[in-house]
Amino acid sequence: MNKKILSQTRRRRLDIQGFTNVEDDLLVEVGPWLRLTFGLCTVFAFLGIALASTSIIWTLVPIAALGAMSPVHPFDLIYNLVIRRFTHTLPLPKRGAPSRFACGFGSVWLIIIGVLFHLGNNTAAYVLGGMLCVVGLLVSTIDFCIPSIIYRSIFGFPPKRELNVT
Fold first, then answer.
1. pLDDT digits over 65-91, tens only?
2. What sign does the CA torsion over 49, 103, 64, 72 have?
3. Is the pTM here over 0.70, yes or no?
4. Distance between CA 124 and CA 108 in Å, rounded?
């Protein structure tokens, strides 16, 4: 049986998001599900922006804010309480400060987009919304989280890990 391994690049990106104290084996198992939260946020943000729907955008704001305040994002509960019962996998690890910072960053970004739509400045809302969706797409597909990098630029990056060759 082939044992799955975590690439050095992916491990580094997850460390930057705040998963520094999580074992590689757990991240191999649940790592793809860590992307679910950001993927759902990105899909709903895209819908809200594409439809210029302040209702969708305002609904996402408290969800993102809760994700900033808690180490368990509300969308993590979808996996932890439902999906993992079918996949027979372990619960998601708690999110660290960089990931929570990203959620706070996203909630402020959503507020600005919502205000812009409300004020009728749709062009600016679409531009900022498009940028938000690109940022969300990066983290939900390749674990590249720009807000976590901003957090780490301010508060320090974790040390780089040595490559374990066995």
1. 999 999 999 999 999 999 999 999 999
2. positive
3. yes
4. 15
What are the two backbone dihedrals, phi and then psi, of residue 61, each rounded to the nearest 5 degrees? -55, -55
Q: Is 52 left (phi over 0), alpha (psi -120 to 50) or beta?
A: left
Name the nearest CA neighbour of 109 among 67, 161, 143, 81.
67
Domain-embedded: residue 16 = no
Residue 5 inside a domain? The answer is: no
Give the domain extent around 65. Answer: 24-155
d(CA 62, CA 41): 12
Q: Does any domain span residue 108?
A: yes
Q: Is residue 17 part of a domain?
A: no
Give the closest residue to 35 by CA, choosing from 88, 89, 85, 73.
73
Distance between CA 117 and CA 25 in Å, rounded?
Answer: 44
